Structure formats: structure tokens, C-alpha cells
Here is the input.
Amino acid sequence: MTGDNGNRVEQVTPYGTHETAKTEQVRQMFDSIAPAYDFMNRAMTMGIDIWWRRLAVKRLKRLKPQHILDVATGTGDFAIQLHESLQPQHITGIDLSQGMLDEARRKIQGKGLESAISFEQGDCMALPMADGSFDAVTVAFGVRNFEHLQQGYQEMARVLKPGGMLCVLELSTPRQRFIRWFYDLYTLHIIPWIGSMKSGDKSAYRYLPQSIAAVPQGDDMLQLMRNAGLREATFKRLTLGVCTIYTAVK
Here is the structure.
């Protein structure tokens, strides 16, 4: 079941074609929407995404990680929140999109955090870091964009130190029928309309609900973590099931 679900999300692409690899389409999409990304995040979630990130950070507090890798770091929101809450020695953010990283660098420059957080462009399918480099690896709202989901998990597990934690925050679909009706109305119709008005890229915001529906959820996601050699895999659904925190330990 997990393998089938993993294959499903890998087949969902931002521009609906398989002539170009998903990785490249994701890069193009985020370069396109980077200037509007933060506005759309706040608008789509009504600001609740900030609270979701706070809950994810709390999962890491007991470990007191000093070196953290934030995969699919985007515009750097999660990396900044990790720094403010955990005060580690250093956070490295990595992302496919140069446009998103440009926004992230502007943020940390404005906050004077250049020595605490660094960003680099790269692909999570082949992380340019040595084995066992980090006390914690995080990824917020990014795993559904991986071209090969299991490979991405294996790479994140590889760069974790023994005893280190992987923390994944990902959007998910509500299970309750009544809530699901409103959720589908909002994600399938309202979000693409707002997204096209603000960013000019309607395809990107059609891709969002399609990728959420296709990504493995619950126990299926945990199995991907276990397949990557991680243990103590758990998940917690948030806000009526529209977001889920997954954690596992190496």
C-alpha cells in the first residue's frame, strides 16, 4: 500500500506533464511563485501554519539539537523558527528553488542571522552532506514534492547522526466526511483562484490539493520512515486532520 501511494504522489506534477522530470517542474513552480509564497501560506491556512511549525519544533526540544538540516527550506520560515526556539549552533537550509532561497536570504539578513543560518541550493535526492552530519533533520510541507519519496527519506536518514530525529510536517486530508466536503471546496476551487490572482500561476495551486491527496498519510508515511532505517516512528494529526507531524529516530 505504501509503495502504491508513494508512486501516486510521484506521478503528480505541477504542470501535469511527464516530459520534464518532477524535480525540474517543482523548481520552476517555486521560482515562479516565490514572491507570493509567504502571502499565500498565510492566506491559505489563515495563519495556522505558524502554530503547526511551533508544534513541530517542540518535538525537537528535548534533544537539544546543535546542528540542524532543514530540507525544502523554501523562504526560510521553519529554519528561522527553529533558530528562535532551539538556539542551535547552526542551521543549514537546502532547497531546489533559487527564487525561494533569495527570499530566505533576505529574511535572515533583515534579522541579522547570517552566521546562525545558511542556505544552499540542492536536491534532497542527493544531499551534498556527509553521513551522520546532523542532530536533526526537518522538512515542512515539502515531502510531497519529492520526485522519489523513499529515496528522499533514505537521504535524510543517511545524514542524521545515530539518535538524531527526523521531523516532517506535511499537509493531509481530513477523514471526517463533513469536514472533507468543506476542505475539498476550499482547496480545489478557492485556493487555485486566489493563487492565480496573487501569483499568476494557477497550475501551482491546482497542484497543491492534488499532491496532498496523493501523498502517503498516517501509517503509510511511517512505513516509509521505517523502510529508511528509522525507528520510533509516530504521527499526530492537527487541525481536524489538515496537517500531520511525523517523527522518527535513527
